[in-house]
Amino acid sequence: MKMESSSQLAYSKFIEQVKSFQVERVTIKPDRIEYTLKPEFGSQRFFTQAIGQTEDLPSLLQSHNVEFTTMLDHAATTTGIMGLLLSAGLLVGTFAWLLKFSNAGGGIGVGAGMGKSNARVYNQGKTGITFADVAGVDEAKHELQEVVDFLKNGEKYRKLGAKIPKGVLLVGPPGTGKTLLAKAAAGEAGVPFLNMSGSEFVELYVGVGASRVRDLFNRAKRQAPCIVFIDELDAIGKSRGGSPIGGGNDEREQTLNQLLTEMDGFDGNQGVIVIAATNRPEILDPALRRPGRFDRQVLVDRPDKSGRLEILRVHAQPIVMGEDVDLEVIAAQTPGFAGADLANLVNEAALMAARNNRQAVLMADFKEAIERVIAGLEKRSRILTPLERQTVAYHEVGHALVGALMPGGGKVSKISIVPRGLGALGYTLQMPEVDRFLLLEDELRGQIATLLGGRSAEEIVFGKVSSGASDDIQKATDLAERAVTQYGMSNMGPVAFEKNSAQFLDGGSTRRTVSSEVAVEIDRQVKQAIDKAHNIALEILQLNRELLESATQTLLVQEVLEGDVLQAILAQVKAPIGLNTWLSEG
Ligand code: ADP
Ligand code: MG
Ligand code: ZN
Question: Catalytic residue positions?
């Protein structure tokens, strides 16, 4: 749904909406109150003027699970918050609330008097959200359950002298429920939730970001036990250094330094736990992950089919559903959707039904809504086209079938085509049975063939390859090159052409100076090893063409193959005649 410009409603209407739990978020500004309805009520935005009301708004909002923020004009706060509120016509019933405002608004060092910078108060009450509201991300939930236990039963840990961790970093693509999880943790523990977003720091004047951080932590310590949530940590936590002198972002660095100082300056046993979220972990400053800071990292990934079903169930709860609605079918039709996309989908379907003047939401509404949501997502290239999805499925099954015949590679334990948040489109997991330190020659060949299995499957099925195999090819080539130049596993004999990489700090390796004939020969041997492995992979897949087909179809439906189902498939793989000769002789 598009954000329409908000329209004005009477204050009494606003209160009525709050009381009937329709309101999701409220922003209290000096001159008006802006608010957004919950998705199931259309996500519309309204504003209202609060003239002469005496209602105790904050506690009303808190008791109806409304998130609220206040944005006070800072120049005005210095002249006295009371006057400001009065001049805005907002009379509040509790003095405690005023106190909260005044000390939150009083961040030091703000360009006071410039009247421009809006001081944001990030106080929020207990969230009212619990783990029951979060679905499909069981591992992440489990990790946060522990955090809840720290907060609730801190004494138990303190008595044993255990150090409670202070920082948890939630990593995952947008809309997967990171914010929701953090709120649920606060809800479950029944503690206050102090919420700040990294991007709020960056547009500030020099020094303000740092003082904001200091302020945030001071409040947290006063309110302990509590959860501090820093969203978009990457906005302040980008790697320092490398920025050109003067052109660098001093402000951001100061803010980051302050955050690091604050994290070091309290101890987890004080009952403050900092949860941060990011979808760009790779750009974070490594200092943030040191012990005692965000040393726990939790992956919050896009859900698989059964996860999507659970999420749909959560969001379908308040909706009047028609008899024909089958959430399982919807889950199957929405690969790549994150939790937020599914929430959006359910709401779109409800809107569709309302527009059609129906009494209940029907499957037809969902069909239409799915198309709409997918169209939106494709623009942001987060959804694979059906052809791309097929390509990924054949590719992964190709790895698995070839891998099933190779020695030492370990059991293929899982194939997945759920797009993994941070990069890969699909993956095949091979679990080594034991830790291996030495690779035998045949195992090395087997690994090269397994790596090439994905690309080979694409060649066989589509007659052409996609760019998705580039990483495999890189790895296969590296292995083949090491076999020839380091391990002496070619008919060039046991001559090391490469200096042991351990001698180099960067872990790279350097070839010995060799004559150009030898260099040519090395290249030829590497190419030969790759070609042979490629041929074997092709041969295996051609021999098992039907299995490749049926396994891929199953994978496309199930999205994940593992356990007995997978092992039954792999047990059927037939070996070509030349396999053993190739494995032993190359
Ligand atoms: P993130 O912080 O990872 O970007 P949010 O927590 O802000 O995602 O998710 C936005 C909304 O999408 C949530 O308020 C919720 O309605 C819905 N949502 C996202 N993930 C889930 C989930 N795992 N289970 C249930 N609802 C979810
Ligand atoms: Mg978020
Ligand atoms: Zn691959």
Answer: 396
Fold entry, domain 120-242+250-299: Rossmann fold (3.40.50)
Could you tell me if the CB of 579 is within 6 A of ligand 1? no
What is the CA(115)–ligand 1 centre distance, in A?
A: 35
Whole-number Å distance between alpha carbons of 350 and 518: 70
Of ligand 1's listed atoms, the one at least distance from the Cα of 303 is 23
* Upper half-sphere CA count for residue 281 (Cβ side, 13 Å): 19
Instruction: Give the separation between CA 360 and CA 323, rounded to whole angstroms.
Output: 9
What CATH architecture is 386-585? Answer: Up-down Bundle (1.20)
Q: What is the pLDDT of residue 536?
A: 95
**Top mean-pLDDT range of 38-47, 372-381, 555-564:** 555-564
Which of 137, 176, 180 for a ligand 1 pocket mutation test, highest count of atoms within 8 Å of Cβ? 180
| Band of pLDDT at residue 107, cut at 50, 70 and 90 | very low
Say what the pLDDT of residue 531 is.
94
How far apart CA 276 and CA 229 sit, in angstroms, is 6
Ligand nearest to the CA of 232: 2
What is the distance between the alpha carbons of residues 77 and 218, in angstroms, rounded to a whole number?
Answer: 20
Reported as type and span, the H/E element at residue 397 is: helix 386-404
CATH architecture of 316-375: Orthogonal Bundle (1.10)
CATH node for 3-71? 3.30.720.210
Ligand 2 center from residue 178 Cα (angstroms): 6
| pTM for this model (two decimals) | 0.58
Identify which has the larger pLDDT, 373 or 425.
Answer: 373
Using the mean position of ligand 1's atoms as its centre, give its distance from the Cα of residue 220 in Å. Answer: 25
Which residues make up the CATH 1.10.8.60 domain(s) of the chain?
A: 316-375
Mean of per-residue pLDDT scores for the chain? 77
Percent of the chain with pLDDT over 90: 30
